[in-house]
């Protein structure tokens, strides 16, 4: 076991190749949960709120350190769909600008959240074609589009979208751009301000190994300044502890998207995970992932997938029948399936022996 792998608790059995779904538990998470949530609760009761809100600030700070921008531009969310709904429903209405665009290969929950906004007068358009080609988006982005929501990495194919170019196209058309980084954060380098997007949504459960429930949004300050969320609560207030029911004022930063009484534990756990991944380095996680994929490719050639994975995320998405799935599972591999596609991911805690096992199984079929 490598030093990096020793930082995680891995499920028993064969190779755990499901980081695209749920990353392994960092060993530091248990102590972080106790120190940030349980110990203050046990010793201070109601007075633990100071510690708990400090844990949220820590979470926002490590997100900023990982993806750029200011801590003030990040806001915790229960999940991606909630964050997306809060962002889109906060846009000032513009006559003649009512189209919401997303790829038809987006994660379904994203489409569901966008479709519900038709009740506010929007129209959802799902863009067909290759989401990794700027031509696909350029044909769809036009006057009348209010927002473009693009996945950085697509969960069923691993395809990476050209986010910077999409953001530029959206800006030229007068639309805002939002990127979903759920399948890329922790495995690919991300620079949210550098991309030129207006906002981003993400979670920590996959490559960041942060567990469920720690969603978040990032909003460029220019967008935040004009956004007026309709789903608010006392933590959306500029002064949550003012307790004046007749006086609501939006928080001056991304916290205006927060809502009511927040959860704390998911963000404390996720903070430990982000610190762990940050200590290893996303660049090293990616390089390790590419080394293991190349090792599989050495055994299989291009029979199962294109060996050059530089234009893809971290997940091997293999079009394969049940015989291939059965062979991999019989060998102990923890994988999953989405329709005709088998998905398997190599993280920092996977090793050469596991990659060799996958390559051996695929080469023998």
TrEMBL record:
InterPro entries given in the database record: Aminotrans_V_dom, PyrdxlP-dep_Trfase, PyrdxlP-dep_Trfase_major, PyrdxlP-dep_Trfase_small
Gene3D superfamilies: Aspartate Aminotransferase, domain 1, Type I PLP-dependent aspartate aminotransferase-like (Major domain)
Domain Aminotransferase class V: 114-298
Highest taxon, organism lineage: Bacteria
Keywords (A to Z) from UniProt: Pyridoxal phosphate
PANTHER family attached to this UniProt entry: CYSTEINE DESULFURASE, ISOPENICILLIN N EPIMERASE
Protein name, UniProt field: Kynureninase
Originating organism: Edaphosphingomonas laterariae
């Amino acid at each position: 076991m490598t030093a990096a792998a020793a930082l995680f608790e891995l499920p028993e059995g064969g190779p755990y190749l499901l980081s695209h779904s749920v990353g392994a538990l960092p060993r530091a998470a248990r102590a972080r949960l106790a120190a940030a949530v349980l110990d203050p609760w046990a010793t201070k009761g109601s007075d633990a709120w100071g510690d708990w809100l400090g844990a949220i600030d820590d979470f926002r700070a490590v997100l900023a350190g990982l993806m750029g921008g200011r801590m003030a531009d990040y806001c915790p969310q229960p999940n991606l769909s909630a964050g997306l709904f809060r962002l889109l429903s906060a846009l000032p209405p513009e006559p003649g600008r009512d189209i919401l665009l997303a790829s038809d290969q987006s994660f379904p929950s994203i489409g569901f959240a966008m479709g519900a906004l038709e009740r506010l007068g929007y129209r959802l358009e799902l863009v067909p074609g290759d989401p990794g080609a700027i031509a696909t988006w350029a044909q769809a982005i036009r006057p009348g589009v209010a927002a473009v929501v693009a996945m950085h990495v697509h969960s069923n194919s691993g395809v990476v979208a050209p986010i910077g170019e999409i953001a530029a196209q959206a800006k030229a058309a007068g639309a805002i751009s939002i990127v979903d980084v759920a399948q890329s954060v922790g495995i690919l380098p991300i620079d949210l301000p550098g991309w030129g997007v207006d906002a981003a949504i993400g979670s920590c459960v996959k490559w960041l190994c942060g567990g469920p429930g720690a969603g978040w949004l990032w909003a460029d300050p220019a967008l935040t300044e004009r956004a007026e969320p309709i789903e608010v609560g006392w933590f959306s207030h500029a002064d949550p502890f003012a307790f004046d029911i007749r006086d609501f004022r939006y928080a001056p930063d991304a916290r205006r998207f927060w809502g009511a009484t927040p959860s704390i534990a998911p963000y404390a756990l996720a903070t430990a995970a982000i610190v762990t991944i940050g200590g290893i380095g996303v660049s090293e996680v990616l390089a390790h992932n590419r080394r293991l994929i190349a090792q599989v490719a050495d055994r299989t050639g291009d029979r199962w997938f294109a060996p050059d994975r530089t234009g893809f995320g971290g997940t091997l998405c293999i079009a394969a029948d049940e015989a291939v799935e059965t062979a991999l599972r019989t060998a102990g591999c923890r994988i999953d399936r989405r329709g005709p596609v088998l998905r398997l991911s190599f993280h920092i805690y996977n090793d050469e022996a596991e990659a060799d096992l996958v390559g051996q199984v695929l080469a023998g079929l």
